[in-house]
Structures are given as structure tokens and as C-alpha cells.
Amino acid sequence: MSVPSPSSRPASIGGVLWSRLIWRHWKREPALTATLAGILALGVAVFLAVRLANKAAVSGFGLFTESISGESDLLLRPRSGFFETSVLRDLREISGKRPVDFFPVLELSGAVQTGAEKPDGDLLRFVGVDLVAIGNAIGQSEEAGEGVGFSAEEGEPGLLGVTDACLVGEAFARARGVAKDDRLRVWINDRVADLRIAGILPDPANRPAIPENLVLMDLPALQKVSGETGRISRIEIRFPEGKAEGGIRAAASEGLAAWAQERGHLLETPEDRKASVTRMSAAFRLNLTILSGLALLVGIYLIMQAMEAAVTKRRGEIAILRSLGVTPDQIRRTWLTEAAVLGLVGGVLGIVLGRLLAEGLVGGIAATVNTLYYETTTDAVRLHPGEAAFSLVFGLIASLVAGWIPAREAALTPPSQALRQGAQGGGLVWLRRWPVGLVLFAAAVGVARLPALTFGEGTNFPLGGYLAALLAVLGASVFLGGLFPPFARLIGWGRGEAMRRYAASRLRAVGGRHRLTAAGLSVAIGMSAAMAILVASFEKTLTSWIGQLLKADLYVAAPGSASVANGNRLAEVDWRALLSLPGIDGADTLQRHAVTYEGRELLIGGAAYHDDPSRHLQLLWIEAPAVIGPDALETGGAWVSEPFARRYAKRSGDRLTLPTPSGPREVTIEGVYADYGNEAGTVLVSRRLAEEWFDDRSVSNLAIYTSPGVDPEAVLESIRGRFPALVTRTNEKLREESIRIFHQTFAVTYALEAIAVVIAVAGLGLALAGLLLERRNELATLRALGATRRDIARAAMWEGLGIALAGLAGGLAVSFFLGWILIGVINPQSFGWTLRYAVPWGMFVFLSGVTLATAALVAWTVGYRNANLKSDREE
Amino acid sequence: MKALQVSRVTKSYGSTEVLRGVSLSLEPGERVALMGPSGSGKSTLLNCIGGIDRPDTGTIEISGVALGGLDEDGLCRVRRETVSTVFQFFHLLPTLSVRENVEFPLQLQGLSVKERDARVDGLIEEVGLSHRASAMPHELSGGEMQRVAIARALAIEPRLILADEPTGNLDSATGEAILDLLASLSERHGIAMLVVTHSPQVTRICRRTLEMRDGLLLGQEE
Fold this sequence. Notes:
Number of strands of chain B: 10
Shape of chain A: elongated
Structural class of chain A: alpha+beta
Oligomer: heterodimer
Helix content of chain B: 25-40%
CATH class of chain B: Alpha Beta
Order of helices and strands of chain B: EEEHEEHEHHHEHEEE
Number of helices of chain B: 6
CATH architecture of chain B: 3-Layer(aba) Sandwich
Distance between the termini of chain B: 17 Å
CATH superfamily of chain B: P-loop containing nucleotide triphosphate hydrolases
Radius of gyration of chain B: 17 Å
Distance between the termini of chain A: 41 Å
Shape of chain B: globular
Number of strands of chain A: 23
Strand order of the largest sheet of chain B: 6-7-8-3-9-10
Number of domains of chain A: 4
């Protein structure tokens, strides 16, 4: 960036204008300029941070485990369940003599067993690879001069053919405080195994770090300890460099694709696989990104406010320039240049800050993705040049948008110095027309009714909802101009205090600066309060859902069941033994299987309910089936979760074809139930059907009803004594846990809102500092009349409170509408959840109190610091 | 007791000596004109007397109260209760009406509504603006604005009024009228007045005229 030095001789009229109008004023008020750039920087930083953190939070998925053999060219996996090892023979047959390497992988989830306490929460990913095949491939690639994922030296010794040996990454060892040759007692599927750490894998240099929860084993060893003998999860396919070029490679790919299609398997590139998985959380991450734009939107108002004030202050100067022949276009360009330079400086600072901020956000986002969508591990946050450039351009555009209206105001200044007298009036006439706000509101209501844009594979984008939110926010910004007179009357009520009346008189004569500051505050408050409505509605719905759902006395799950990605199960022999323990009256049982349906992950649940109609799981119905009861599913129908129904536009009576290991199965939807536990979508059938389809009699969850008169805690203890690895909770504990997870998923949103409110309140301080600077002569008069510093600070406080009140009232008013958009439009269209509208009045009181108190404090401080500003009166 | 006693006051800004040992005094009710070219130190002297600025050396006493011993709050109290200023550019608070401008210093003093009303109504009537009491400053002529400023200055019943070019921004007829008003009000209320001016017209309402050059009063009182 090239900024002309004040001492340099400007070569053109543009240079003269830049130097006289902008640069000198920046030099005169460096704190103000720095604050403006800082606000913009914070906006850009939050935006960039969320994007980087989003990337890092989901980039861990599969990057290591999906290409364990190095850089796979293709991935082959079944739509559901496992392959049998014999599939490798078929593959070798169809590829004939073509040079293709196949690497079978078995991937299972499990947990470190830490005793009776809490094995849950420490979910492990066990990956079994064929070390012989990889060893061969390494030999070949080294001949071709290429490295692969991990080396034979690290992998082979002590691992090959040894059933109790495993390798872990450095992060795993650090997190759990283990070293080579230590032993790990783990739970895989329904078995407990004692593994020896045969080695610690160092993180590879040019690839993502090895995930903290990865345990690597030899394939046959993992098959043996997990009981999945002869089974594999997927096959990684590689065409060796230099041996399978052009035509050979294409022919091999075609042959494999035809074979996979014929058998109903999925053949994808690793990139396709990653994209299809991360698409699951796309709506969640998009919502976060849009929310992150909030800080920048608040920033736009503040930049606009500051630049508008600068135009007002320098209007006399602009008039002189106009009278000397400077054209409106030249004036406009000068102001836009100021906006652009501010945007660039703020943008560059924002990139640095955003990179740091991303570190703090990534954990929170990853935790939510883990809980709601799929297993992910965080990658180190990296500053992607593309993301940095995008954020810089975004910040620049925001700054130019903010500068456009003030630039136009400046250009419209007539060439008359007489304007100097009226310069205090302020511009932005459009902001004074508060009825325009009502028109924007009406437009918002109309736009909100637009249907979602639908992309392939069930991804919906609620464009109408977002547009409606933007229109409503703009409407509130304009409308709140009409709130100043009543608030001025409120603050100036009575005839008591001099400074309060003086502040009220100032609020009666508000300019663009007051309005824009209040508008910025209303955006921040409006969005924060709307999110609070969303959270409250979610919580209310969830609490009622959990209340209806959780009727059992005890809940038992295989380790890691908090994550929907978990595939851990209890073997039939175990859960039947568990249910035969004394004091147990019966149970609801559920088995879950992840399948790929229309390119996306889907859970098929097999449920069997307690025989007693009054003692079994009660679902919350969106579309109730004709028959509800323990045997309702036994007739072969299916109940689908609301997210599934919305995503694929399905309803009761529709037919579904589900992919299962035993071939496609057709079911009829008989009911749609609310499910706030996952967004992936679930199809519930009877456990009997699922057992048949998946050839699996294990279960993942049990809801246990104790016999009348039996203390659930006593039963809980006996289960823990007999099955120490299982996750066991009482009804109350599970409720608490569910609400805790719920709040954890909103942690990042809370942080983003807080940043927006902080920016807005800082903007209030900035605006007041600017206003006092403009009124330095008036301050001198007040002092001459005997007003103390504290008196002037008090006047600033009342004025700041007036602005904050207008922003708060506008923000809270618009939040009801925004809340409705979030709950009634964006949420159902993005996630497929129906929520009950709830207003968190307590939170509103808290938000209002904190905003007003902070605004008062900031305004008082600004007033006190500026009370002794020297007048610019001439002698 | 003198209304104002200034003794050997000096004031410098950086290396520039603006006041170089100024001394003067005013009796209660006395009006004195202070003339001199721009940059001679008149306004700085006025600022020091009004407690806006502090002299480097020397003492200033208003009705026996030495300003040097007062902290910021003490100086504010002096401006609230003892000394008023009338400015060349009027400096009315632009968002307050005529009545509110006049009432404002009384509110700062903490007077009751009843006391304020009685005093404000009388003053507005005295300066001939009863019919414009609810007008805003931007609706007034220059002469009217200065009348409001005078009424505001009188509201606190000061011992001393400092007038900084009170007619400097007015046409000559209006200026004459304002001078007559100042003279009559100062006489009626017994208020001393120090008027900084470039205009010889002002001297006609003053008992004495002092001239200031280069930070010193010519023929300065000892």
C-alpha cells in the first residue's frame, strides 16, 4: 500500500485531495483512525476465523484414515455394513493384469476402558491395514522415487501378525500419557482387549497430523480382537506411478466402476468422499459463517457513521474545494479511496487477528460437528491464501459499501461556504425517514415465505430466510430513527437535572451519527437476542422432547454412544445377560447402522419396545402413525425422523428403498417423529427387520425399566459391577448430559454474538468521542457556565444511554421477527427441526441490563476523558 | 472588598510569554474596557480570570476568593456562582431553547424549579425576549442571541461579568443596543464588568479603559 507522505509534493489533484482531506485528518486524529481500522479488522478477523476454524475442524475427517496407504486414487466401500475379504479376489479378477494395488482397511470405533467410571467420551478409531500389501507398495513406490503415508520402519516391527500390538500417534501418546510398550485396555465392538503400544508414529511432514484418537493395527489382528473376522470396511485403490498411465488407468477405473455399480457398492475418489461427508455439516457451518458476518455488518454501520461524521465535519472544507473547481466526482473518489485504504489496512490486520482467533474457535466447532454429525479430528489451523484473500476482499467491499453513502453526501456538497454554519446538521437523509423501515419489514415478511433453494443430495439453502433477516435488520436500522424523540422525552423527563436535560436536548436533534450508531447496536442486539430466542426455543423443545422420550429408569449404551458416528454395539449374549439381572422389568432396545442413502449418511435404527404399553419409549410425533404401541413397527412399516422427512420431502405413506447388506429393502413410511439428536436422518424399523437385513443381533442402546419398588441406583450398581465398560446413566443423569451437550453446541455462537455486541458498544464510545470532538466549543461553553468534568461525563452518559436505548429497543423489536425466521424458516429448511417458539425474557433483561450498563460506563468514560477538550475558537 | 484583584499574573505557552505580569482591579459595579491588538493577551487574561486557564505566577481574587488555591471543582463553583462570561459568538447551547439556555446555569446551581422560574422569567423580560422564550437559538437574530447570552450570564447573579467582544459579531445599531443593555443591567444589579473589545464604542459605557500590548497593561496599576 502506498500512502503519500505529508511532506511529499502531491502530483495530481487526487493526490492533493488525498493529502489535504484525508491524510492530514488521519494524522490529526490517529486514535479515531486506528479505532476505525480496528473495528474493521475485528469484523474481518471474526469472519476469517470462523472460516479457517470450520476448515480445520472438519479437515481432520478422513484425511489420514481415508488414505492410510498414501495417496489413494479411489475408495471402494459398501453402501452399508462390511465387505467380506473375498471381495479382494473379485477385484483382482476384474482388474486382470492391470497394475492396480488394493489396500483393504477395517475401521471400527471403540474406547479406552478406564474402569467403571466413564469409558465414554474417549472414543477411539481403530484402523486395521494390510501391512503386507502396504509393505509391497512401499517397495514399489521407493523404486518410483515416491514416499507414502508412513514408512515400513515405523509400521512393521513388532506389529505384523501380532494380535495384541498397535501403533498410536504422538498426539494420542501425549493426551493419554502413554509410551512405547505401555498397555491399553480397550473396548472394540463388544469386546475388551489388552493391547501393547508397539510404537509411536511421528506426525508426517506434509500431511495432516495423525488424529489423537487413532489406533493402528495389522488388519488380521484387528479382525481377530474385534470379532470381525473376514470383514473389511473399505478398500483403498491405487494406481502405481509410472505403471498405470492414461489408457490403462482409465480402463481399470471403468472396469471397477461397472463392477461396483452392478453390486451396489460405492466407488469414489477420496475428495468425493470427503466432500460428501463434510456436506453433512454444511448447513451448520454455513450458519456459523453467516453469523460471523454479523460482526462485519456491525462494523459497516460504524465505519459509515464515522465517515459520515467526517463528511459533516469537513463539509466547509469540501465546499471551499468545490468553489475552487474540484468536481463532485473527484470528491467522491477521494472519500471512496479513504474507505478503500481503511478497508485494506483493517483487512490485513484482520487476517493476522483472524488467524489467532481461529485457534480458539476450532475446538468448539469440532466438538459440535463430532456430536451432531460425524467423527472429525481437528487439524492445525492454517492460513489458506485463498481464504485470506477472500476475507480481505470481503472487508474491502464492506468498507466501500460503508463509504459509499458518505462519499455521495460529500460529492453533493454545494460550493458554498455558507454551509459551514449548518454543518452540524448531519446527512443521511434516508435514515430520517423511519416509515421506510416499515416498508423494509413488510418486504422481509414477504421474502421469508420463499421456499428453500435445493441443491443435489438433499442440501437445502434457506435463501429467503437469510434475505428476510437482512431486510428486517435494515428495516430496524431505519425505523429506530423514530425512537429517538420518545427516548429523548423519557431521558429529559421532569425539570430536575441540568446535564440530563441537556443530553435529552441533544437526542431531540440527532444526526446521522446517532442513528447509525444505534443501528449498529440494533443489528448486534437484534441478532444476539434472536439467537437467544432460537436457543430458548431449542431448549424448551428439547426439554419437552427429552421429558417425553426418556421414560425409562436407566440407560445403557456401548462406549462412545454420545457421538452419532459411533458404531459400538453390545453383543446379543451380553445384552441378554444384562436384561436378566435382578430388578429389571424390561427394556427398549435399539441397534443403529450407518448406510449411504442418496449420497448422504443415514442411520437405520432397529427398535424393539417394552411389552407394557405404558412403559416404553414415547416419540414426539410430527405425523403420528395410525398405530402407536410396542408392536407398531412389527408389521414392517418405518418411522422416519423429521430431518430425514424434510431433506428428502417424504411423508407418511411414501415408499422408501433402503440399502442394506442383504440388498435393497422397501418399506412404507407410517409416521414422522421429532428427532433433535441428529441431523443426519434416521429411519426406524423393527429390530427384528434390522437384524435380518444386517445379520446382526447386537444392540447399541438400551432403555431399562426397573421392576416396581426396586431402586434404580441399586440396579445401576449391579450393571456396573457386571459390565464395567458400558456407559450407564440414570434418567436424571442422561437428561443433564443431553442439556450439557446442547449448550456445548451453541458455545461458538455465544462467542460470536458477544463479539458483535462488544464491537457495537465500542462503536458507541467511538461515536460519542467523535461527537464530543465536534462539540468542543460547546464543551468550552459548558465549562464556562460552571459544568465540571463529571457533569460533562454525566451528559455524555445520558446521551449514550439514549442511543443505546434506541438501539436496544430496535434490536429487541426486530429480534422477535428474526427469531421467527430462525425457527420457522432457516432452521426447518437447513436442519429439518420443528421448534416451539419461546422467548427468554430473563436473558433479554440480562442482555438489556448489560448493554445499557456497559453503554453508560463507556459513554461516561468517553465524556470524562474528553470533557477538557480545548475549544477551537479564535481569539 | 474588590470585585476583582489581579496581581502580577504571568502566563506562557511554550516559549511564548503571553502575559508578563499583569495587575489590575475592579470595584464592585465598576465597568472597565480592555483594549489591545490581536495577540496582546486579552483573551488569555480573561481565561485566567474566568478560571478556564491557570496563570503561571501571580494571583487572582474574585470578591476576596483567591483562584490559585482552588482545585478544578472549586473553579467550576466560582464559574457557577460568582463570575459569568459573555462571548463574541454568543455560544448558546444550540439544542436548548431561549428559556432553557437561561435556566441552565441555575439548574447547575441546583436551585428549585420555583426559584428558577421566578428568576428566568424576570431576566427574559429584562432583555426583551419574553415573546421568544421558547425559540431555538438558530431561529434568533445575532442581537437576540446576544441578549439571551446576557440573560444567561446574569442568571447566577454574579459579582463579575467577563465580556469577550460582546458586540464583535453584531451590526453597529444592534451593538449599541447591546451595550446599553449591558450597562443598565450591570448598574441595576451592581455587577462589575470587564469588557475585552476592539471597538472604541464600548468605552462609552465604561468608567475606565485599559490598553494591553505584548502581555502588559499600559500604565498598569501597581
